[in-house]
Amino acid sequence: MSISRRCIFAAALAFSAATPVLAAETIKIGAPLSTTGPASFLGEPEKKVLEMYVEQINKEGGLLGRKVELILYDDSGAAERAVANVKRLTQNDNVDVLIGGTTTATTMAMVPLIERAEVPFISLAGAVVVVEPVKKWVFKVSHNDRMAADRVLADMKKRGLTKVAIISEDAGFGKSGHDETLKVAKDAGVEIVADEVYSSKDPDVTAQLTKIKNTPGVQAVFNFGLGQGPAIVTKNYRQIGMTAPLYQSHGVASKEYIRLAGDAAEGVRLPASGLVVADQLDATDPQKPVVTLFGKTYLTKSGSDPSTFAGHAYDALQIVLAAINRAGTTDKAKVRDEIEKTSGYVGTGGMVSMSPADHLGLSLRAFHVVEVKGGNWTLID
Questions:
Q1: Burial category of 144 from C-beta neighbours within 10 Å (exposed 0-12, middle 13-18, buried 19 and up)
Q2: CA torsion 271→144→146→152, rounded to 10°?
Q3: pLDDT at 6
């Protein structure tokens, strides 16, 4: 069975496969991504997934009797380039829908323009600010930073770790995650006893970690960041002899983090989707067949293990294609409405049910706690 016939738009593909693709205008999907630069370990897998599945869809006849055209531009993680790219996509390329926004910073830079252009947009970024407050044309598929903070602090409390230090990047996803952690800490029964920040460009964070190490009573440390920063934090953490449990956010739920941090990553815990521990999920978990098939397909096609970021691109594409199929058109307002009606979609990130008040549609149950053991992810909860 082909990879796309297992998707929620299978009926549409089966119909299209039996009907010659008409010489009609293509369905245009714009993809403003960060495929180079500091966030490339997020953006490159996203790019691979979109290209992989769009190619497969077209081989099987397209959608609504039309071919799907992917128009992808790289912003290198720079907000100003992201804005220029989305202008080009909406004004020159006249795309029907947008999937992208690899980082919170690039996403939020694009949002005002996307709202004015009235083009449906599914972001792949992590911060809760992307969809809170709700924005008419903006959706997201990745677990947000508040969910990560809730899941991590709950695991700490379960282990009897109630005095916690935070270290985080000083902008974008790191800053948002830091702020959300402070908001939920009290209700979680956790006291924040130290709070340090670093820049994503810092080659060393020993000074900040030493302050944390010298803070009386620290029982665990929680790092919020993206890219190489968390790996540097992890290495420096071990180098100065810190032994308290170290937690990371879902922003590093990739084998690339383990590769960069090396042996220092052993014992680190973080929240992640079931995709990274597909083989360890219970046989009755509705996600298991989805993440298992996606993981195998991605590994076969790309030659590398799938990251949760690859999974976000997959989920966004399936939700978009299903919405276009239900709408029976690429009319932007109708497609937007159908995305908002997404209900019961089982994807790599969890079960998604959106609404006018919720443009994410994931519950906390979509997150698992995983730990690095033997250079790999191990399911904890």
A1: buried
A2: 0
A3: 46
How far apart CA 178 and CA 158 sit, in angstroms, is 21
d(CA 274, CA 285): 10
Pairing of strands 68-74, 27-33: parallel
Fill in the amino acid letter for 217.
G
318: its two tokens = 């399936």
pTM for the full predicted model: 0.88
Measured in residues, the chain has a length of 381
SS3 136: coil
Q: What is the pLDDT of residue 350?
A: 95
Whole-number pLDDT of residue 58: 97
Structure token digits, residue 262: 């090396």
- Do residues 101 and 121 touch, judged by C-beta distance below 8 A? yes
| Residue 253 Cα to chain centre, angstroms | 9
Q: What residues form DSSP beta bridges with 192?
A: 164
Show Cβ contacts of residue 156 under 8 Å, excluding neighbours closer than 6 positions: 162, 164, 188, 190, 219, 220, 222, 245, 247
Name the token pair of 138.
């903006």
| Neighbour order of strands in the sheet with 97-100 | 68-74, 27-33, 97-100, 121-123, 138-140
How far does Cα 287 stand from its chain's mean position? 16
pLDDT at 270: 97
Q: How far is 144 from 209, CA to CA, in rounded Å? A: 26
DSSP 195: E
Q: In what order do the strands lie in the sheet with 191-198?
A: 191-198, 163-169, 220-224, 246-248, 269-272, 368-373, 376-379
Question: For residue 339, what is the enclosing H or E element?
Answer: helix 332-340
Q: Give pLDDT tens digits for 186-239.
A: 999 999 999 999 998 899 999 999 999 999 999 999 999 988 899 999 999 999
Segment holding 378, helix H or strand E? strand 376-379
Q: Which parts of the chain register pLDDT below 70? A: 1-23
